[in-house]
Amino acid sequence: xxxxDTKIFDIGHFSVHDGPGIRTTVFLKGCPLRCLWCHNPESxxxxxxxxxxxxxxxxxxxxxxxxxxSCHRMENKMHLFDRKRCTQCGICAANCPAxxxxxxxxxxxxxxxxxxxxxxxxxxxxxxxxxxxxxxxPLAHFDYLFHLLSLARKEKIHTCVETSGYASxxxxxxxxxxxxxxxxxxxxxxxxxxxxxxxEAERIRGNLRKLDACGAPLVLRCPWIPxxxxxSAYSEELLEISAxxxxxxxxxxxxxxxxxxxxxxxxxRPLLCEAKFPSKKASGDxxxxxxxxxNIPVVEG
Length: 301
Known about the structure:
Layout: E1 8-15, E2 23-28, E3 49-52, H1 62-66, E4 72-75, E5 78-81, H2 91-94, E6 101-104, H3 110-118, H4 121-127, E7 130-134, H5 142-154, E8 158-163, H6 169-175, E9 181-185, H7 193-197, H8 202-213, E10 218-224, H9 232-244, E11 248-255, H10 261-266, H11 280-291, E12 298-300
Parallel strand pairs: 2-7, 7-8, 8-9, 9-10, 10-11, 11-12
Antiparallel strand pairs: 1-2, 3-6, 4-5
């Protein structure tokens, strides 16, 4: 994908969970994985999409009038949206006064994104923060990512890249001088990886070891979804590889949050799995279990 095709689906200001300090997180659209627990389903497709929230519709009919593909109609006082006909042009969303229709995915140049990031420079300087690029999968947009990180380096802004690691190592190697800290997702055991994420673990594990050998600072970010990925094999592999690697600064455990369930409805998609929300006690017990078996700091992400 060229830099001109890359879309942003969000820019989050004042984030404190995506790297050190106060950060601005840039979310790139498009991901080669399909994790069953994904809480950002709008991040998966590289194309723009329409969020539709029927409860917000006031029945004004503005979208019926402007939609060039006639995707919207009213039946029995219900607003129906025909997604099969939709071309994701976003005209309906631009003309919806109630916010029932929202366009997700827009192109901003790296320079435009950096202008937004620089608005928060004072917070980076006082907190040790910076810019984090997330997704989707940032490495799926190498040209765009390289350009954006290069601009951040010129501005002397601390940078993090959150990645699944499913990419060409040549691309990863080229980014090493531009990335202050890698936030590397450790999603599942090798045996379960394809079933739970859609891709094999071999390439990801290999890239992780190669990146560590280059001395790049790492944080392992580990989604923890009870009865989905929380096998003993997952925990054992996490402990084994973290003991093997030399550049891991900490392990972040990320208990499942049902934040994305409503997004699936608004995108007209079924949930990929019915995951459970772990209790604070269960999360705390799991952190203690891991911390008792490693010298690397284990924290809740």
